[in-house]
Description:
CATH architecture: 3-Layer(aba) Sandwich
Radius of gyration: 21 Å
Mean pLDDT: 90
Helix content: 40-55%
Structural class: alpha/beta
CATH superfamily: Bacterial extracellular solute-binding protein, family 7
Amino acid sequence: MLKKLGLSLVATAIVAFGADYVIKFSHVVSPDTPKGKAANYFAKRVEELSHGRIKVEVYPNGQLGSDKVILRKLKFNTVQMAAPSFSKFTGLVPQLALFDLPFLFKNADHLHKVLDGEVGQKLLKMVNDKGYVALGYWDNGFKQFTNSKRPLKLPTDGKGLKFRVMSSKVLIEEIKAMGGIPVVLPFGEVYSALQQGVVDGQENTISNIYTKKFYEVQKYMTLSNHGYLGYLVVMSKKFWKKLPPDLKKVVKEAMKEATEKERQWAQELNQQQLAKIREYAKKTGKLEIISLTPEQRKVWEKQLKAIYPKFYSTIGKELIEKAEKAGEEVNSTASPATATAGGK
């Protein structure tokens, strides 16, 4: 009994001299991706702004489990924060599949206008209604295709090829529209699947293609900028309710700062890492990088945007049209490749 009492007192003392609240922040990518860097920055700023009352422990590379597992843990408050890709939420909020639609955004300005505007706020509320606290959107970037079989210059070049995709009905239809075969696999299995030929190719942002070394086990990379990959930063509602108002304010402020940094890093890392992939391609001759001509891009857009009507009933035709309309006032001359960047 005395031994148990002693342990209890020690535990109490540790809490008293440590943080009042601990946030376990889980994500599935490398620390040097935009999301990884932003998670670490958020942790630092929360601890600074709260004067040590909140400690944030960041767990990268899926150390605590896949995003799917973590979303369940958030419900029970065994993990407090995560930043899964939008596709992980589409079972709860089908409208979030909006961001998986190919060729929806002209560039980063168009994208951010949607994320930070009426459409984005409406989607955050939908996530909140499902038992989470949605804190904001983080960029990953525009996606590129890679494969080991042939150059993808037109969508029909993907016919018969097996492409790994995230668990998303939109992405599955996207690959089918190319005549390809979609294969849903967890992110952590992509490299080995490419290496062993389980799949022929994949779609991802420059950051993940580089940090996970996908380019080393692929022969072709097409700078298609065909789709967007972003993250929704969410917190456990049970944990959020425990926070006093002043610390909720701290979390929101730190998130605002981290979001600004994350978007900046996404852009910078995309440019830097694409340059490194180009250097590898030139040095080894093992990778061919294809840039689409304006004419080729129009063919891609026409063929892949043809899947939109299939999702009018789930995403909502009005929501899709609002997102498209937001781009009318945006300068369409900026290239998605130079406007933003990314990871998984």
